[in-house]
Amino acid sequence: MTTAATDRRSGVSGWSGRAIAGLVLTIFVFFFLIPVVWLLLATTKSARGLIVGAPFAPGRPGDLATNWHQLFSFQDGAVTTWIGNSAMYAVGALVITLVASIPAGYAVALTEFRFRRTLLVLTLIVMLIPNTALVLPIFLELNSVGLIGSPLSVILPLSFFPFGVYLTYIYFSTSIPRDLLAAARIDGCSELQVFTRVALPLAAPIVALVAFFSFVQSWNNFYLPFVMLPSSDGYPIQVGLTSLLASTPAFNPSSAGGQSVQLPTLALATVISVLPVLIVFLFAQRFLVAGMTAGGTKE
Fold this sequence. Notes:
This protein is mainly alpha-helical and 299 residues long. The chain folds into 2 domains: 2-68, no CATH class; 71-293, Orthogonal Bundle (MetI-like fold), CATH 1.10.3720.10. The protein contains 14 helices and no strands. The longest helix has 41 residues, at 2-42. The protein is globular. The chain starts with a helix and ends in a 6-residue tail after the last helix. 26% of the residues are buried.
């Protein structure tokens, strides 16, 4: 009798715990989902419909086309230029990041050299420093060599990615059999051949993970391009959004005029600015999952 009562209490307790957890998760889902749904629906409305209409009522395709035309005609197609600049900065930084961080992580993980542990500790320390704290010294350094205002003033700092080095170090330390690398050396491979022909093909998941994080960081970076680029012609889309915001009468009443931007157009610009990251994530999610779970077990 006591055992049966205990089982009933345990069942009720387990059911109550699952119900509470489900309720909390549902609240969080709605908390984060509602703004996204509102933002997507706002792109399909007119300026008046966004204010006086129902918040979650869909708009009309004609209003979406009008918002699209207004967005891409802003300052003679500045938005197209900003998107192209973002792609150039993100892809350029991504290439340099992969070329530098993957071999660096491999070297720290699988080769013995002087000050190896010191280099790893310095990598961890740099990871803890906020990126904004480094903008001023980087600005002074690049200004001394005359790179301010050029694409390199954004690409080079963004390609400095110690987190990618650390991720690669973790992967090569735990997921690559050292006996396999030793066998390649016995067969006559040089260290470069061991890395390019054996280790690198096995590291495809972590390469994809580092590439994704680097791309997202570069695409979403605002403060660095804002400081380094004095002209709007070189802005990425994240910095360009501030120009759109300043031209929206709802936020800046003095901007009312021929080049003013309405709230639905600003919402459309926000959605477009995050689409590349979403598309990259959808196409790369299989590799991202493999990269995140890699290194979870010791050889």
